[in-house]
Amino acid sequence: MWLTSKRSLTSRATLVVVLMVNIHLATQDDVQQPSNLDILQAITNLQSKITSLETEIFSEIQDLRKKMYSMENFCSETLHYKTALLENSFSELTNNSTQEIKTMIEILAKRDGSWSTWSSWSTCTATCGGGVKQRKRVCDAPAPAHGGSPCPGDAIVQDNCNPDPCPVHGGWSSWSSWGGCNAICGGGVKQRKRVCDAPAPAHGGSPCTGEHTIQDNCNPDPCPVHGGWSSWSSWGGCSATCGGGVKHRKRVCDAPAPAHGGLASLGEETLQDNCNPDPCPVHGGWSSWSSWEGCSATCGGGRQMSSRTCDNPPASNGGYQCAGDRTREENCNTQTCPIVCPEADGFILSAGGQQCLQVFMEQLSWEAAKALCMNKNLVLAKPQDPVELRKYLNGKYGDKWFHVGGRGTGSVFQWRDGTLLDSSSSMWRSGWSRSDYTSSDNCLALVTYNSDIRDYPATPYSSRPCSYTYPFICEVLQE
């Protein structure tokens, strides 16, 4: 009876060993391995089965012990010894199996750490001028367990960001000192300036706001006005009809009257002359012509008058009066009045102050330049002194072509006043009539190239196609 129980016990112990061998084989590299989760589940099931088997075997050993005690005087010491030996063998077997299972569980449950995916980059620590950004990852995919290795590498990395320099917004310098007044009396203007360089705008910074130039009135006191005589009045009547008398004429210091500290006119206010000196008829004779009286205009053409009297001798006592005119007139101050030309950039007072020109550096065709001049109440210029003008323009603007007011066909050009300029003119550069410059629609251009000024000093003009775009010169028309 006990031998049968022993075989049964041995058979169950063998089952434990077989199960442990199967677990060991399942972990070998040459066997298709299940997942760790499957293996852990299998080990858990195995532990449950072993526990159940231990309970069953222990129960059978107890039954065997009871049966042995019920046998009377049958090798009791031997049976006790055998039973104890069986119990010890079972205990040793189950203890060793349990320890090996625990060891396998620890081996199979061992897990190395693995990184999660990187997080998004953090916000840069600076918006410009160079900053730092970071991103992170966590060793939780999975986390290391049961003696597994931690994740290799860094949990945080950083990188440079926003390296572009920061914008620098412009700032004004201090105002300069006031410049000189443009008039010594009668009201003028003075200016002062500042510069956007404290600091200058950079890297997309905003420019300075406000004006870089301001002006103020200066020298407001009116200018002195010196007095000037009016024309002489007509002679007054003679104080006597014969035998000698006196007549008078006057003038007034009101053309203009002195003002603001100006000087009064020099000379006499009243003149007198003898008249009717003879008691008897005397045929009249003219005196010398008087000095010319003041001109009616200071420039641009006026009239002046002188007079004579029939007193050399005067007709008296029935004598004949002088024949002819008592007064005479002639033109005076015929010189051209000075041109008023604005004191501004682009304006040129040319031809000895007789012509005001305005230079436009916009690149336009001849027709467009003419239209722009007209819109500004100007006309395309007919320079009165083109040889000197081209030198001035070269010094200010360099080598250029400038549209002027001449237009024509071939090599004959007509100015707006009707005068002509053709290839025989000393002002026109002969030999420049290339085919593209001798079309049916040519326009005149002023040449300011330094080489032409040097090699052709007296020939400032050339023909150019009217469609070519150049800067141009307008003329200020005078009243």
TrEMBL record:
Pfam families: Lectin_C, TSP_1
Signal peptide: 1-28
One Gene Ontology cellular component: extracellular region
Gene3D superfamilies, per database record: Mannose-Binding Protein A, subunit A, Thrombospondin type-1 (TSP1) repeat
The C-type lectin domain, residue ranges: 352-475
Compartments reported by the entry: Secreted
Key words, A-Z: Disulfide bond, EGF-like domain, Glycoprotein, Repeat, Secreted, Signal
InterPro entries for the chain: C-type_lectin-like, C-type_lectin-like/link_sf, Compl_asym_regulator, CTDL_fold, TSP1_rpt, TSP1_rpt_sf
Xref: CDD domains: CLECT (cd00037)
PANTHER family to which the protein is assigned, alphabetical: PROPERDIN, SEMA DOMAIN-CONTAINING PROTEIN
Descriptive protein name: C-type lectin domain-containing protein
Organism: Meganyctiphanes norvegica (Northern krill)
Organism taxonomic ancestry: Eukaryota, Metazoa, Ecdysozoa, Arthropoda, Crustacea
